[in-house]
Amino acid sequence: MGIVSLDLIEPEMILAKEVRDSSGRILLGQGAEITEKHLSLFRRWGIIELDIEGQGEEIEEGPLDPEILDEAREKMKAIFRHNNMVHPFVEALHEIVSEREARKMMRNREVQT
Amino acid sequence: MISRSLERFLNDDFELPAFPKVVLRLNQLLASKQFALSEVGDVLSRDPGLSAKVLELVNSSVYGLKTRVETVNRAVVMIGAEQVRQLVIATSVVKMFKSIPHNLIQVEDFWKHCVACGAIAKKLAELQGEEQPDRFFVAGLLHDVGRLILYLKAPEKMNEVFEKVKDGEMLFHEAERKVFGFNHAEVGFQLCRIWSLPDFFRETAGYHHNPEDAFRHHEAASLIHIADFIANALQLGSSGQKYVPLLDDFAWNRSGFTSSIAEGVVNESMEKYEEAIHVLL
Ligand SMILES: [Fe+2]
Ligand SMILES: [Fe+2]
Description:
- Chain A is of the alpha+beta class.
- Chain A has helices at 36-45, 57-61, 66-77, 88-112, and strands at residues 2-5, 19-20, 26-28, 49-52.
- Chain A has two domains: 2-55, Molybdopterin biosynthesis moea protein, domain 2; 58-112, no CATH class.
- Helices cover 46% and strands 12% of the residues of chain A.
- A two-stranded antiparallel ribbon of chain A has the order 1-4.
- In chain A, β2 and β3 (26-28) form a beta hairpin.
- Chain B has 16 helices and no strands.
- In chain B, α2 (21-31) packs antiparallel against α6.
């Protein structure tokens, strides 16, 4: 999956994540094949980007930028504030969620550039 | 034990939404102890919407059956009558409380948290060699249901709770106790009782923040505690709390897990989670 701007989306692409309107209502479900009709509807509803299957996969698997990873570790420390960070399981989970966060940050930065 | 304040809260004019008729019929049928498996399927198939959801879940990676189940009758044979009843109850609870607008939380996010907890709990149960890992999925789905009732029934008080936890000093369930005199886990325990779910579910909902205090199901409550911890850390949905609750030493030691399970559990529950929210939400 990967976030793709609406202008670059073509029919037959597959939605990796459902599309919602501002009130949280699902407009089109995950796994749906996008049609021309959907695209014009999305434009009318002011939706600017979609999560598309098979896009941005390099980021999903490629190496993590060590600087971004450090930033993510720092950021995720905050949610564990009630926990003992040297507990081995807390430590392991902190690392897992930091890596996930780092990938998310890398994806966002890619979209911006 | 039920505290006076909790009793008053539950008896208040607030009416719990009613279960679909099918649930009541299933409860009656299974309580009679004398029934044919085909009767369970017959009752369930009178509600096509629920039947479809049950079939979808049973065929998803959550249950991980090797062959496709095409009919509810077959589902009853494959996973068992009581398991089908539990799944029907949990599915109905999600459905009953799904589309309620709320200004403190997104109800969908709330359920995502619960689905994540269920998917992870099932994976943990499999690791422990549990005989019936499926019921842990249901237990996870229901573990925080008491909190949803708090949101719906007492939004102003929940707002007070939010105020108390805002600066991150106090844990959410502790703040609930300060404001209400009881917390969502205790409400969950009572709801499971009202819904005539087995004591297993009462205790997993009732003691997932303090497994040590459970009556009989210390292991199961510990397992749900750990699954809840992981679901909160992964920030899959949210039951309203920003911070990961404190990992309980009793629960961790009782589980016998080591930290090396973390990565595998996260990776392998993710598919179950995605599929289950797709079916349920
Ligand atoms: Fe909880
Ligand atoms: Fe929870």
